Amino acid sequence: MTSAPSTAAGGAPTAAGARRLEVDLGARSYPILIGCGLISSPDCYAPYVRGRQVLVVSNDTVAPLYLDAVERALASLDIHKVILPDGERYKDLATLNRIFDALLAERLGRDVTVIALGGGVVGDMAGFAAACYQRGVDFIQVPTTLLAQVDSSVGGKTGVNHALGKNMIGAFHQPRAVVADTDTLSTLPDRELAAGLAEVVKYGLIRDPDFVDWLEASRERLLARDADALAEAVERSCRNKAEVVAADEREAGQRALLNLGHTFGHAIEAGLGYGEWLHGEAVAAGMVMAAELSARLGWLAADDVGRIRRLLAGFGLPVDPPPDLTAERWLALMAVDKKVQGGRLRLVLLRAIGGAVVTADFDPAALRALLEQTAAASGRATA
Amino acid sequence: MTSAPSTAAGGAPTAAGARRLEVDLGARSYPILIGCGLISSPDCYAPYVRGRQVLVVSNDTVAPLYLDAVERALASLDIHKVILPDGERYKDLATLNRIFDALLAERLGRDVTVIALGGGVVGDMAGFAAACYQRGVDFIQVPTTLLAQVDSSVGGKTGVNHALGKNMIGAFHQPRAVVADTDTLSTLPDRELAAGLAEVVKYGLIRDPDFVDWLEASRERLLARDADALAEAVERSCRNKAEVVAADEREAGQRALLNLGHTFGHAIEAGLGYGEWLHGEAVAAGMVMAAELSARLGWLAADDVGRIRRLLAGFGLPVDPPPDLTAERWLALMAVDKKVQGGRLRLVLLRAIGGAVVTADFDPAALRALLEQTAAASGRATA
Questions:
Q1: What angle do CA A246, A249, A253 make, to 5 degrees?
Q2: Which has the closest alpha carbon to B60: B87, B38, B33?
Q3: What is the annotated role of this protein in its UniProt record (chains A, B) (predicted)?
Q4: Which chain A residues are within 8 Å of B103, Cβ to Cβ?
Q5: Has A173 been annotated as catalytic?
Q6: Which residue in chain B has the smallest CA separation from A136?
Q7: Looking at chain B, which residue has its C-alpha nearest residue A111?
Q8: Do B335 and A107 touch (CB under 8 A)?
Q9: ipTM of the assembly?
Q10: Structural domain B247-377, CATH architecture
């Protein structure tokens, strides 16, 4: 499933040495470009910008690092920009409205292209603004975190949080292109690199057991930020995601597999307050919980749970949930999950490493027992 | 193009005597049901509700009149509701968030059906909330104003206003059904009935000259709220709209014809402050302006402009714009129109009564002359 670096086959030219994948969605198909130095290459944008106006959306952490390079690459266009405060706690309707303010104050038309320069929060908000502005304008994802490069920038999920639930307000809106410049990972804090690796591991666990082997063998190169290893991890993650999204764009079925660890993870994020744990950290602990529940149900060997724990811990990720939530609180937080159907919770669980299923067909007592053990481990009893 | 009242042909049963039209959009096709007493008929909802949960969204004017009847019709379901303040000035992100608050506080799942009970503002906001909640849930339109029955409830345009532009934030999201109960028009203030008739006239002017003849002949019956005349006007309007929407759902081309009078009208609404003039009133004056510009360009006979003026004035609608805007202000307000492409304004103009075109190919001097005449008529000079 790996492929050697290659120049673009068909379509627009890309920077020499860039890896290129296609997300196959008919009229909404688009490329993912992966490589070093892409954000400063005009060729990575020009084929995907229809009009003359672009609005670059970034945040106050990323803009000082990369906005100049992006502006130089877009110099032939009419460039506008809006810089948001950095952080998941700003991923809300009020901050979204600042993007609409900029679009309208500068009278940008329906042929504007929004360019999301930043991590997952910027991408989700800029993409949602593009989905809603004049009922839909183009956008390009330029993810600058590992998590955004391997996950949130691909597949068209956009949106904001609500005080009562994460990502509860949003739209499916596919970008025109994803430009993943692996050079931008050099400025990423260690903790955020690890959080991105949690989503990388996820692809292996749900559908690509060979990738799990490769990740175990590549731990040191990844943590040392070896350029080839990172590009390989990004490409292979995106290839897995692109295949799943192409088969089920609107999450009628198998796309939900991409939520391994996320129902538990969202409960952790909401329970502690968004931003306390990074999303990838919560997903890491959540994947271990999913594995442990799978083992309690007799679906997964205890050895496999241990292997998953070691892989994640080896990347510096948390493998136990925070000790602050009672079982009742867990269940309340999980009840708002988007996978709930007819009041019944569905979870992504593991039948094997590399074989995930979405199911409501599990013993609720096993879930409760897991949550009570989690709460008891912290010395707290349930209500 | 008229058709006799009929029961449903194929599909779900509807109340006896209901007229039924289909909006043909492939997998997203849906019926428009038109008739007396439909809102209290369970059969008008049940076939279009997938889960057990419904959220009725209404406002504090309509809810006291019709909410009980709707609740009785939905009695077999799990009913939730949210009542918004009435008025175009509440059509914003903050009020939209109250719908999300209700959906999340009551933990309604992805299989919830949102039911919009009210006029165009309620329909646009409830529809947009349904488009965004969990990235898209079902909704049913139950329009209670003539304007909503003939226009805003059909075709899937949803959204809210922004301080800098009307309907600038939104989504295309088709309802599962439209339930247009003509009995609800009995409680409509005269001014709102007339505002709805402006959109009815619009269908005739853009593509149905026989309908213009019929409207001229039916003026007294419509103003007297004759049930058959109103049902005929609603059905024929919806048939025209359904045909246009089926041919061009996302407004890549001819759907823009439905905006006859709207670029001028939106400028009137924004220039005076939303809510000062009703939308239909602004569209009526805007259609006359479009007709006058068409005549200045030599595209439309002066007699036809007079005929349009008389038809609209006969329904009690304004046929001259408000005297408060300078030509510069008009142009600034019109520049934010969604039909602007590459910085160039496009307008819907008339080649004949019943023959509209969308075009940027007009002499800007003619537009300016029209606007200056409009401003001069009020004794104000341009800057």
A1: 100
A2: B87
A3: Catalyzes the conversion of 3-deoxy-D-arabino-heptulosonate 7-phosphate (DAHP) to dehydroquinate (DHQ).
A4: 168
A5: no
A6: B171
A7: B341
A8: yes
A9: 0.89
A10: Up-down Bundle (1.20)
